[in-house]
């Protein structure tokens, strides 16, 4: 059997070239990963110092939002540089690609309009401070806490634990439920036979006691009076202003305290009753 030495040398040279290229790609990806990790640490360190600064202290939610966006930008830039380097490792002339980037950007703009819209909207959300990481918002039929505000998407964690990922271009009307005072509203029904003035006085006493104990209550609770005459009850409304995200806890505790006090005072809260008549044949 005859061996061609030239063929062996050619195969060996090709194998070395392939292995060299693969090693370069692995090395580029490894270095890119290191740079991404370093960038994240530097960004975290910078914004942590701004949050803890004695002078010109930055709001925590805004700092978290800017930090998240800066990480996204740095990651995309490093990925772009790594991609160019990998193309060069395969022998692709990237100078022509970079030179044509201006023309390519226009073409990509038309081909990826949704992506461009996402990024532009993300910048406007960020710099207009419409909402920040940690805010409780309602948008596009979804409500929850903002976990991440990126250049392309916004992640919202619902109360049921579900993670909703919304493209920024879909965010048109935002309801921010954490800016300013929140309303806690409690409706209490009493029987028509009960003394309305007495019931209102009892609710007022409960509200004043609760106000002294809970620092999350900013105003009230105030007894508004009779808000509805139902089919089986007289409804008395109580309203308070609370710190953001505390309104539901205040409502629950007010209901509990009012119910317990009504039981002590003998004030009836009507509820549906079922009476069963057992007719026996004689």
UniProtKB/TrEMBL annotation:
Residues in Mechanosensitive ion channel MscS domain copies: 114-172
SUPFAM superfamilies: Mechanosensitive channel protein MscS (YggB), C-terminal domain, Mechanosensitive channel protein MscS (YggB), transmembrane region, Sm-like ribonucleoproteins
Topological relation to the membrane, as annotated: Multi-pass membrane protein
A molecular-function term among this protein's GO annotations: mechanosensitive monoatomic ion channel activity
Pfam families given in the database record: MS_channel_1st, MS_channel_2nd, MS_channel_3rd
Location of the Mechanosensitive ion channel MscS C-terminal domain: 186-269
Major subcellular site: membrane
Chain segments annotated as transmembrane: 12-39, 76-92, 98-116
Gene Ontology, cellular component aspect: plasma membrane
Subcellular compartments: Cell membrane
Keywords linked to the UniProt accession: Cell membrane, Membrane, Transmembrane, Transmembrane helix
Domain (Mechanosensitive ion channel transmembrane helices 2/3) ranges: 73-113
UniProt similarity note: Belongs to the MscS (TC 1.A.23) family.
Protein's name according to its UniProt entry: Mechanosensitive ion channel family protein
């Amino acid at each position: 059997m005859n061996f061609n030495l030239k063929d062996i040398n050619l195969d060996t040279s090709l194998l070395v070239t392939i292995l060299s290229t693969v090693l370069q790609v692995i090395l580029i990806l490894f270095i890119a990963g290191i740079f991404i990790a370093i960038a994240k640490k530097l960004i975290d360190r910078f914004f942590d110092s701004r949050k803890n600064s004695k002078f010109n202290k930055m709001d925590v939610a805004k700092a978290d939002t800017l930090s998240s966006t800066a990480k996204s930008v740095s990651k995309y830039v490093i990925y772009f540089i790594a991609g160019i380097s990998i193309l060069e490792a395969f022998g692709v002339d990237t100078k022509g690609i970079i030179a044509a980037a201006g023309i390519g950007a226009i073409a990509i703009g038309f081909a990826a309009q949704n992506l461009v819209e996402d990024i532009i909207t993300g910048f406007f959300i960020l710099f207009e401070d419409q909402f920040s990481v940690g805010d409780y918002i309602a948008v596009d039929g979804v409500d929850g806490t903002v976990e991440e505000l990126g250049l392309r998407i916004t992640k919202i964690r619902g109360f049921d634990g579900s993670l909703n990922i919304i493209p920024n271009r879909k965010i048109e009307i935002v309801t921010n439920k954490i800016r300013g005072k929140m309303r806690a509203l409690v409706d209490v029904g009493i029987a028509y036979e009960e003394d309305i003035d007495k019931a209102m006085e009892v609710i007022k006493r409960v509200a004043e006691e609760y106000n002294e104990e809970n620092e999350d209550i900013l105003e009230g609770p105030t007894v508004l009076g009779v808000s509805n005459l139902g089919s089986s009850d007289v409804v008395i409304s109580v309203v308070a202003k609370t710190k953001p995200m505390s309104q539901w806890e205040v409502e629950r505790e007010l209901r509990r305290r009012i119910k317990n006090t009504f039981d002590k005072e003998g004030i009836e809260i009507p509820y549906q009753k079922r009476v069963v008549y057992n007719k026996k044949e004689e």
